[in-house]
């Protein structure tokens, strides 16, 4: 089977898409529990950019190269209260209402 320029281009695009999905799968993530502490319902946030946080019982930030900024207001409004550039975990309640993962 001979490859044409168009089939080679399609193959290259598929390879780039697969690599991009691998990077997203390995991105940093933030897990928030409903509580008390690190118990109850857990919600994982991995999306690049701003996400509102709905659970506030406890948290874990898994650092895989992308930093995060935590905000006391929804929609990442105001000034960042806390920044994560390494992994951390706390099973105490927290007041952050949104976060921004820098990708």
From TrEMBL:
Signal peptide (from-to): 1-27
Top-level taxonomic group: Eukaryota
Family annotation (Pfam families): MiAMP1
Keyword entries, A-Z: Signal
InterPro entries per record: Antimic/Inh_G_crystallin-like, Antimicrobial_MiAMP1, G_crystallin-like
Gene Ontology biological-process entries: defense response; negative regulation of growth
Protein name: Antimicrobial peptide 1
Top-level taxonomy: Eukaryota, Viridiplantae, Streptophyta, Embryophyta, Tracheophyta
């Amino acid at each position: 089977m001979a490859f044409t320029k168009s089939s080679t281009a399609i193959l290259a695009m598929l390879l780039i898409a697969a690599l991009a999905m691998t990077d997203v799968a390995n991105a940093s993530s933030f897990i928030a529990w409903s509580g008390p502490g690190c118990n109850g319902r857990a919600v994982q946030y991995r999306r690049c950019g701003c996400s509102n946080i709905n659970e506030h019982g406890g948290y874990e930030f898994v650092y895989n190269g992308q930093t995060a900024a935590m905000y006391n207001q929804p929609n990442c409004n105001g000034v960042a209260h806390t920044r994560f550039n390494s992994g951390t975990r706390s099973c105490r309640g927290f007041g952050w209402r949104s976060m921004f993962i820098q990708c």
